[in-house]
Amino acid sequence: MSGYIAHALSILADPYVLFVITLSSFYGLFIGAIPGLTATMATALLVPITFFMDPLPALAAIVTMEAMAIFSGDIPAALVRIPGTPSSAAYTQDSYELTKKGHAELALGVDLVFSVIGGLMGAVVLIIAAPLLAEFAMKFTTFEYFWLATLGLSASVMVSRGSLIKGAFSLLFGLALSTVGVDITLGFPRFTFGNVELLNSINFIPAMIGLFGVSEVLRNVTGKQLAYPIARVKASKIWTGMWTLMKRYKVNTIRSGVIGTIIGILPGAGADIAAWITYAVAKKFSKEPEKFGKGHIEPLIDAGTANNSALAGAWVPALVFGIPGDSITAIVIGVLFMQGLRPGPMIFETRPEIVYAVYITFIIANLLMIPFGYLAIKFSSTMIRVPRNILMPLILMCSLVGAFAINNSLFDVGVMLVMGIIGFFMEKHDIPVAPAVLGLVLGPIVEENFMVSMIKTEWDFTQFFSRPISAVLCVLALLVWFFPVIMGFLQKGLQNSGKESENQNN
Amino acid sequence: MKLSDSLLGLMAIAFGALIISLTHNFPTLEGGYPGPALFPRILGSLFILFGGILSFQSIKNDGLANLVQRGETYWPGFTNYLSVAAAVIAYMVLADILGFVLTAVVILTLLMKKMGVSLLKSALIAIATSVSINLLFGKFLLVPLPWGILGW
User: What is residue B2's three-state secondary structure?
Assistant: First the structure.
């Protein structure tokens, strides 16, 4: 094992890799700090560049970038009351109220310090949990993978905010896209309409760049340009009082770090959901819940720790099963496949240095966040002021080049545009985009494992339920599917019993 | 402009029906078992099911009024939307003829100008960006971008 760590370290210590890590840090900090640009978009735009690198620096770049972006999303939340990424939305109100009271430095200091702590906690869980799960996952066959992918898809719909049916639309759309191209059983071309480019199925990267990059450009250029006042900060003062807060809120930090990582591990739920849930939990257990939303420091600590810990959590199922924990790791899985690496338990045996490199980069990235995050806070007002009407055309051009460069195909540029328009339409109608991405990535896995299982057992369905692990996963999937129905009954039951007790009181 | 949930549901039903109808000539496996058509048909049916539920709920709650909600029309936003789409299409048409650098400079300059940046500033930023992207991909990542007939 130490040999692999040494190998991974020696690759990461290469000046080229260090240069890539530094650049992607600044890139992540910048995109995160621009209101309206998400870490997922940053990943989608980074992918065409990482595609041409070796797998190790490519993964290091993505890990560093996402860690930095999720922290720096907190900066505009505190300074202009607009979350830089959706992961900071839960505590934007509190951050901004703190700034209005003249405590901007305190808010940003907490954001930075607890992002680092959360990120490191998530990394530790990743390092411990992933190899253990990988050993267990060696027992899995096509039946288990079918249920696991199904479970992941269902969970992605369940955790999306808003209407479940709209989440389901998004998922079905992604799955439907994944069926385009040559089919797995007979090699029959499906939905290609005679187009040769569609035979190899819809290219994942241009689709991703469209759904996350172009749609955000469209959203930004169609809205009114808002001019907002930006509070000034003295970066040197951000460290004041941090030690006291760390001691006073150590229970909050541990609780939210753990919850955040678990939510990250859940397929489909990422940093933004982790922040919302830990915000609610913190309010429930707080001694001062009435202060929440009015400029209280506790939500920043809890949700700020959780969103960064969720990032590493999301890599657990991604590396172990090839099932993404959030939309960023969904993109990563696409990248791994294209690099010729099949994520899953075998990767721990065949390419252990890849796994160790991810572990080590998570730790390096979170430690680098201390000095780099400080710089980002120091130059925050300049970053936030970058004019939108210059930035958006530039992002569009990067998307164009990225979509084109993967296959040197102008057809892919067209795919990107269509996906961008669809993504924009979905967002306008409150249809979450993340389940579509999961559907696109997991669709072939669900179908392949189902079809292979069926053909090898000559259509004996009982195998899906009679194998022990398979049965457990099946029950879990059923629970997820019927969760809304069960909750509906429970709520009705509670309301009725509530009414009864009210009647009794009267 | 925003479509109502009932309309979205109907669109989902239509899409599901379209998927299923497109699978009518898909071959079956030996022994008559479903093959390539199985998954698309399941997906199509689910689209119809969920679309039906959404329309039903929405019509039950709001009736058939407000099928299309019209927000305040923000014209610069609408024309910006069209110019972004036009920029992508222009790139697809022009890149192979003019080459990457020239195409990118033209598109970026026009797009920034449209968004309200001054012409000189737009042109300067466009040239700087296009040349750097070309260097990044061409020299650093060794991915050739379109050369065009002029060779640059």
Answer: strand
For CA atoms B86, B91, B92, B93, give the dihedral sign.
positive
Q: Any idea which residue has 């703190």 for tokens?
A: A98
Window 434-493 of A: residues touching B by CB (8 A cutoff) are 443, 447, 450-451, 454-455, 459
Q: How many CA atoms lie within 13 A of A305 on its CB side?
A: 26
Q: How many CB atoms lie within 10 A of CB A16?
A: 11
Q: Give the gap in angstroms from C-alpha B14 to the nearest C-alpha of chain A.
A: 13
Minimum-distance CB partner of B143 among A52, A186, A190: A52
Residues of chain A with Cβ-Cβ distance to B92 below 8 Å are: 410, 413-414
Burial of A397 (0-12, 13-18, 19+ CB in 10 A): buried
- Tell me how many residue pairs between chain A and chain B have CB atoms under 8 A apart: 143
Q: Give the C-alpha separation, A4 to A475, whole Å.
A: 38
DSSP structure class, residue B3: E
Task: Please name the member of B26, B36, B43 whose beta carbon is closest to the beta carbon of A172.
Answer: B43
pLDDT string in tens for chain A (506-residue length): 677 788 888 888 889 999 999 999 999 999 999 887 889 999 999 988 888 888 889 999 999 999 999 999 999 999 988 898 989 999 999 999 999 898 999 999 999 999 999 999 999 999 999 999 999 888 888 888 888 888 888 877 877 667 889 999 999 999 999 999 988 888 889 998 888 888 888 888 899 999 999 998 999 888 876 667 777 788 888 898 899 999 999 999 999 999 999 999 987 778 988 999 999 999 999 999 999 988 999 999 999 999 999 999 999 999 998 888 888 998 888 888 878 888 888 889 888 888 999 999 999 999 999 999 999 999 998 888 888 889 999 999 999 998 988 888 889 999 999 999 999 999 989 998 888 988 888 888 889 889 988 888 888 888 888 888 888 888 888 887 777 777 667 766 666 655 444 444 44
Q: Which two tokens stand for residue A335?
A: 């990248």
E-only strand ranges, A187-305: 189-190
E-state strands within A273-418 = none
d(CA A134, CA A319): 8
Q: Which two tokens stand for residue B26?
A: 């898909």
**3-state SS assignment for residue B4:** coil
- Span between the terminal Cα atoms of chain A, in Å: 69
DSSP string spanning B38-71?
A: HHHHHHHHHHHHHHHHHHHHHHHHHTTS-SEE--
A405 at B interface, C-beta within 8 A: yes
Q: How far apart are CA B136 and CA A49, in angstroms?
A: 9
User: SS3 of A477, please?
Assistant: helix
State the Cα–Cα distance between residues B140 and A49, nearest whole angstrom. Answer: 10
Measured at the alpha carbon of residue A352, what is the angle toward residues A348 and A358, in degrees to the nearest 5?
100
Tokens of A440: 């696109």
Q: Choose among B29, B112, B145: nearest Cβ to A401.
A: B145
Tokens linked to A432: 């979450």
User: Could you give the CA distance from residue A317 to residue A344 in angstroms, rounded to a whole number?
Assistant: 9
Could you write out the DSSP letters of every residue in A154-197?
HHHHHTSSS-HHHHHHHHHHHHHHHT-EE-TTT--EES-TT-GG
Q: What angle do CA A42, A43, A45 make, to 5 degrees?
A: 65
Task: For residue A212, give the DSSP letter.
Answer: I
Are B112 and A387 inside 8 Å of each other by CB?
no
Neighbours of B56 (CB within 10 A): 12
Residue whose pair of structure tokens reads 């240095």 in the numeric block: A353
